[in-house]
Amino acid sequence: MPVAGQVWEIVLLKTNQTLNYLDVISSDDILGNLFEQVEKTLDLLKSKYLVSVIGYKGLYRNETLEYPEEALREAVTNAVVHRDYVGAHTQIKVYPDRLVLWNEGGLPSGMKIDDLKKSHASKPRNELIADVFFKAGLIETWGRGTVKIIEECKKAGLPEPEFKEEFGGFSVYFYKKTDFYSEDNLKKLGLNQRQIKLALYIKENKSANLSSLEGIMPDVSRKTLYRDLRELADKNILKATGAKKLRIYEPVK
Question: I need a surface site. Which of 3, 76, 80, 208 has the fewest CB within 10 A?
Answer without folding.
Answer: 3
